[in-house]
Design a protein that fits this description.
The chain has 68 residues and is an alpha+beta fold. The chain has one domain (2-67). The protein has helices spanning 12-22, 39-42, 58-67, and strands at 2-6, 27-31, 44-48, 51-55.
């Protein structure tokens, strides 16, 4: 699973750690832009295997990528 995160998210380092713990087989990269302008600064957002996903909290985001 490929996960691309925006570097503009305030808690990006915390998010990377939580994703790595929940899905150890994920390939995580922090990019300068993932094409979700304005959303990535306020919500947890990422490109997961080419699909745009965004949730209000890190916990909800982790649950979404675990089931998908």
């Amino acid at each position: 699973m490929k996960i691309r995160l925006c570097k503009k998210f305030p808690k990006v380092k915390k998010l990377v750690k939580k994703i790595a713990l929940s899905t150890p087989n994920a390939e995580i990269k922090i990019k300068s832009c993932i094409g979700m302008c304005k959303i990535c600064k306020t919500e947890v957002s990422a490109l997961v295997s080419g699909e745009k996903i965004h949730k209000k909290t890190i916990k909800k985001f982790i649950k979404e990528i675990e089931k998908g």
